[in-house]
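Project standup — Tuesday

K.O.: blocked on the structure for the chain from last sprint. Re-posting the sequence here as requested.
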Amino acid sequence: VLDSQYGTYVWPCAVVLAQYLWAHRRSLPGKRVLEIGAGVSLPGVVAARCGAQVTLSDSEELPQCLRSCRSSCLMNRLPHVPVLGLTWGRVSPELLSLAPIDIILGSDVFFDPKDFEDILTTIYFLLEKNPHAEFWTTYQVRSADWSIEALLHKWNLKSIHVPLYSFGADKEHLASSSMPGRHTIEMMIISLARSEGT
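H.V.: unblocked you, prediction finished:
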C-alpha cells in the first residue's frame, strides 16, 4: 500500500473504533466529535449517524484522503459534515478556529513512529483547548518497541487501556485483516493528566 493510499482503505482499527462508537451510541447525540487522519472516515461516519456533530479531518497535504472523507459523507447521506485539512504537528488557521470538541477520534494514526510526536502535539493542543475532551484511539501493534509512553509523559497526557472484549470487538471478523503481518489491535483513551489536587 503506497503512502498516498493509506487513507483509501478501511483498516481493521477503523472497524474496531466504529464498534466502540456503536456500543456507546446512546451517549453520542449532541457530542462534538473530530476525527483526525480520517481517510475513509468509518468511525466519524458512524458517530455522525448516531447523532454526534462530527468534523472530519486528514492531512492538508493529502487531497485524495480529503476527497475520500467527502465521498464517505455523501455515500452515507451526510452532506453537511465538514471536512478539514489538518496536518499533525502544524498549527494552522483551521486548527486554531476549530469549534469546541468533546471527543477526538483516531484509528490507526500511530502507524509510523516518526509521526507519533506530531500526533500527540496536535492532541495536546486540542485537549488544552478542550480540557474535558478525550482522544479515543485504536492502533495496531506492529512492533514491540514502538511506544508512546514517554511522549504521553512529555506532553502531560494519560492513557487508559480499553479491552476489546468490553465492547464486543474481540471477534475475529471485526479485527481481522487479509494484509500480511501481525494484526493485534488495541484501544486506549487519552486525556490530559491532571496534577494532584486538581
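K.O.: great, moving the ticket to review. The chain has one domain: 12-192. The CA atoms of residues 3 and 62 lie 10 Å apart.
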